[in-house]
């Protein structure tokens, strides 16, 4: 017990109190923000590997941007990227306006074991397509490739599809004036695939087909919508009618 009682205690070293006249510690560098940019958004930051891969891809295709050369360069530059880095690289190439290189990166992703045809991913490609004479044909080819991938994978499976993502793709196609391509997606997913969608999808398709001059397709969408309404349970129909009435009153108030 005596040995425990007489163990010397460590004396705390007093810290000097910094006053208003204290000097800054040399070697410590502080700085504020360099500009008024906001914080980075989720998905906008690239890893070092993705940055180097994008630079390598643009360097390899600086002299030849043909589809064959772009595909070969993308396989060499992007083939070893992880899923997150490859997806981020595709988004960054679209943002920089290198749409053809982004499509080449998509071809690389198709060979990965994790790849699944995602309507939201294709919607970003449709939205970012450059406004040129060949843009329409490129979008149509992209949609055909998406539908072929879905068919090989078993088609549109109820319970495994995200209706919101499908709506994004349809809206992007309508916004780009590709009514036939939007109809192909709708027909494959809803009319032939039997995918259960909501009222919003029907309204987007019907209005889009009307605006693009496809009156026959618009009428078929409206007929599908009428059939869908008959399958709604009474409680759900009451909620739907209430939402429509609220939307109608809001529109009337805005117009007045």
Automatic annotation (TrEMBL):
Residues 236-256 are annotated as: Disordered. It comes from the Eukaryota. GO terms for molecular function: RNA binding. Residues 238-250 have a biased composition (Basic and acidic residues). GO terms for biological process: chloroplast organization; Group II intron splicing. This is Tha8. It comes from Eleusine coracana subsp. coracana. The gene is ga23399.
